[in-house]
Design a protein that fits this description.
This protein is of the alpha/beta class and 466 residues long. It has 23 helices and 7 strands.
Length: 466
């Protein structure tokens, strides 16, 4: 026999793990607007006449709510048999008398999985949540498969990278797929996506996943799983592209750009739906400010990604709220924004972040690490004139000045107009007391360097060269 608590638990799970909504708590009527299907549970004893009347009444109720004919209506008689056969392509009547029957209802894939977990809450608990009319509470109670998947994916990636870092001692964010202007313009375009699923440490992951859980559930409820995923990914993408357009030196990672996009989308929904009061809008704005302030507690905060993500969420949500004509126009506008950001990204001067690593190791006096890092740059094909200069300095320290000079000469064959390499060769020739060659290299360097930077060497060569 099915108890009242078991029935309420089933209704709760159906509304939580499918797109059915309880539209009438007294008549236990659930409707799926998306699939145009309805389910009704009937506890009162039925005979042929009463059941026939109930079927007709239910059909009219569903038709009025959907503003069209339903695809199917399923009526479940609780703890009683079906009094007669009802042959209809739309309406089906079934009898349920055991708790196991409730767990095997054909509702959705998620329901099939989670209905097997026996509920341990009170009857009052299920009744209260089924009868709530607050959209925020409904959204938080609803199972959000895309949000759950994104959280799991972020956590799994973090754990995998944590294990790799411990076992190989290579925990560099750039090696994991972090966002870097230098790598992006050199063809590693995947970083605008991979950086969204990387985090600096556990506290960074925890803050972002808690925020994703709250704002993700709300956005997925109001916009649906597919649109939610599109808002999330496009917001993160636009945030990272904006970052690439203005920040050429840092390496960043995190889901915060995409999460601020969810907040932007929620603002659009709350304002345009006109279902929410000013107090809730102010609370949402406060939530955004708190999230941004909390994000700034971590090092290497990418505020460009935050602002870009927020704009992306606003823009994409507005696209979904507009008529088809405006949707097409805004889609074109979004494509133009992305093109402009890409044009700016590829037009600004790049900064070789790998050279910065070599120089940092040299400053710390770790020339063995500096040599290894420099070799890695050449192996990846990321070398430039400054790489040759740094590598030459490392070899001059680790091996001999002759090795350094050979490296600088090789660099000058590729970059003959390099001011830094010519200047470095002038210094090397001066160290070898070859002031004539030093003067030649100095003259080339002086064409591209300010007089302030070259004055000391110029005076020295003038004295010793005479």
């Amino acid at each position: 026999m099915i108890t009242s608590k078991q029935l309420l638990e089933t209704l709760y799970k159906i509304t939580r793990y499918s797109d059915y909504k309880l539209v009438n708590s007294e008549e236990l009527l659930l409707v799926s607007q998306k699939s145009r299907k309805a389910i009704r549970f009937v506890k009162e004893k039925q005979n042929v006449q009463s059941l026939d009347f109930l079927i007709q009444k239910t059909h009219h109720q569903i038709k009025d709510r959907l503003h069209s004919n339903p695809v199917s209506i399923t009526i479940y008689l609780i703890n009683q048999s079906v009094p007669a056969e009802f042959n209809s392509s739309i309406i089906k009547v079934h009898s349920l008398s055991r708790y196991s029957d409730l767990r095997h209802l054909d509702i959705s894939r998620q329901y099939q999985i989670f209905s097997r977990i026996k509920g341990r809450q009170s009857e009052r608990y299920y009744e209260k949540r089924l009868t709530t009319h607050h959209d925020i509470e409904r959204a938080m109670l609803k199972f959000s498969p895309v949000t759950a998947t994104l959280i799991m994916l972020n956590v799994i990636i973090f754990l995998i990278h944590s294990v790799i870092t411990i076992s190989t001692e290579t925990g560099s964010l750039i090696e994991k797929g972090g966002l870097s202007h230098f790598n992006f313009v050199h063809g590693e375009y995947y970083r605008v996506l991979t950086a969204m699923f990387l985090h600096l440490d556990f506290s960074h992951l925890l803050l972002n996943m808690l925020s994703l859980y709250i704002f993700g559930k709300l956005t997925e409820y109001f916009f649906g799983p597919r649109r939610f995923l599109l808002i999330y990914l496009l917001s993160g993408l636009l945030g990272n592209l904006l970052s690439l357009s203005f920040d050429t030196s840092s390496v960043s990672a995190g889901a915060s750009g995409a999460i601020t996009g969810l907040l932007g989308a929620l603002f659009v929904h709350m304002i345009l739906s006109r279902k929410f009061d000013r107090k809730l809008l102010l609370q949402t704005a406060a939530g955004l400010i708190i999230f941004l302030l909390m994000s700034n507690l971590f090092g290497r905060v990418n505020n460009w990604a935050h602002f870009g993500g927020l704009f992306g969420g606003f823009f994409v949500a507005l696209m979904f709220k507009q008529a088809k004509l405006y949707l097409y126009m805004m889609t074109v506008g979004l494509a133009l924004i992305i093109i402009l950001l890409l044009m700016n990204t590829f037009s600004i001067n790049e900064e070789n972040i790998y050279n910065d690593k070599v120089q940092a190791a040299m400053v710390q006096g770790d020339f063995k690490t500096a040599e290894r890092l420099a070799k890695d740059i050449f192996a990846k094909g990321y070398e430039d004139a400054d790489t040759y200069r740094l590598y030459g300095l490392v070899l001059a320290n680790n091996q001999s000045l002759a090795e350094g000079i050979a490296t600088w000469q090789a660099g000058l064959k590729r970059y003959p107009a390099s001011a830094s390499l010519n200047y470095q060769m002038a210094l090397a020739m001066r160290a070898n007391d070859d002031y004539k060659k030093a003067q030649l290299y100095f003259d080339k360097a002086a064409r591209y360097m300010s007089s302030k930077d070259t004055q000391a060497l110029k005076n020295e060569l003038k004295v010793f060269g005479e």
